[in-house]
Every structure is written in C-alpha cells, then in structure tokens.
Amino acid sequence: DDESRLNFIQRIENSLTKKFQVSCGTDSAGREYDSITELWRNEGYFDKNKVPNWYKKSHDYWNNEKNVPSTIDGMLGGFSVLTERDLDASRKFVDDLLASRPDVKERICSNGGRASECGAGIGRLTKGLLLPLGFKSIDVVETSARLLNSAPGYIGHDDATKCNFICKGLQDFDPDADTYDLIWVQWVVGYLNDWDLCNFFNRLGKSLKKGGIVIVKDNTCNEKAYLADRDDGDITRSFQYLLAIIKESGMRVVQLESGDDMIRWQTDFPDDIWPVPMIALCYD
Fold this sequence. Notes:
Structural class: alpha/beta
Distance between the termini: 28 Å
Largest sheet: 8 strands, mixed
Radius of gyration: 18 Å
Helix content: 40-55%
Strand content: 15-25%
Number of strands: 12
Oligomer: single chain
Order of helices and strands: HEEHHHHHEHEHHEEHEEEHEEE
Shape: globular
Number of helices: 11
C-alpha cells in the first residue's frame, strides 16, 4: 500500500543520507526534485486521484519499431559499436565469478545449468554470453512481444530450442524457487519503480539454486541520486541508490575469499556513456 511504499522510500533516502549521498534528482524536462519521494509522487504514485502510467510509457516506447528497431543497434540505443566491448567485459567478470563458485561451474559443465536473461529484448546476451558459457536452458524474459518475437531468429534456430521465451514485465516476473544458476539483468532496472525493483530482486534471489548468482549491469549517474526520463519511463540511479535498493531486497553483494566485493566497472566505454558497474548478487 502507499504507506508501506512511502516508508520504503524513506529508508532509501535515509540510507543515502547516512552515506553522505544526496537524494535529490532531475528529469529529462529539466525539472529538479528535492527527494526521491517527490519524483514518484509526481509520477502519480501516492495520490488516489491519479493513475500512474510509468510502465505504460516504457511499454509504448519499446513496442514502437521506430523507437527501438529489432536489431543490436536498437537494443543499445544506437551504440551497437559497443556490444563486443560490453560482452568481453561481461565474460571476464563471469569467468572470475565462477572460479569462486565451483558448485555452479560444475553444474554448468555437467548438465548445462539453467540461466535467465531479464529484459532480454532480442536476446543479445543470451546469444553472446549465456549460450557460449554452456547453458542448455535459458529463460528469455522480455515485456515487448514485438522484440521477443524477433529473438529466435536473432539467436538462431538450433540455439533457440534451448530457450524458453517469456513475454512478461519484470515487475510481474515470479520464477519458481530453486530454478536458476545464473540470472543476468542488464540495462533494464531503470524501468522498474523502486519498490517493484526491490521485490523483483527478492524474487530472483529466491529463484536461485544453491550458490546461484544474479548479475546486475546497468548505467549509474553521478552528482545527483537520479535522472528520470519522462519520455520512456526510465530512471538512472546513482550507484549508492541502486545498492540501497539491493540491500532492502535481502540480496547481498558476493564477496570473494579476499574479502573484496564482486563489483567491477566497464572501463572502456566512451567518456560520454554513463558509468556502468557489474554487480554479482547472492541470496545465501
């Protein structure tokens, strides 16, 4: 209900304050907000006289072929030139991560394991990352039926037989417990409001097999807590803002034997691209 959501947002704002981080932000129209609460209130939440259209905006945007062609360039907002750099960094991250999770690596090697790509679009990461890792069963989850219908053709007929194509918004995606060895969530968390993102992470955590991992890779912003895009219903959060939501969800960042958190940054993108962390999460 609205009261529990407001309390949740207040905890996020308090968490940022304790870390000497701001909770103010701006939107694509140039409007300044003093708090996270103010943003979501402006989007129609916490007001019984308004019907929020946050998800409708993003759904309409991604379902429009003119906005998002069913191509790699469409998936990356015109930056298809970055796809190999992105995949290379992700492969190195997963390789190092699996070295610290031998039980998961063994399951993948022995029976193929099971993975999911959330917010998959046409399955760019399924084809370029998850299938080459050796997964034999992959749930490809995407809210746009138009994009999802293009996924089998992009992935390829033989490999598409290893995939289950699920047309569902991530705010409604509720996988069974003890299902996945690895879940990849990239460039999509900004389309969920804060409480739905928290609940989404919690459900993913419960869906992991023993030793399973969720990897989040997404844009983050500096200076302010967020930048909200009013056109497509998307919020770019600061790194600390994202971590605060993850903590609320009950998930935690994977720690290596060295004691270091399994967090790395994409270092070879152009300077005008948002900072992109890779964060490995577990629920055990």
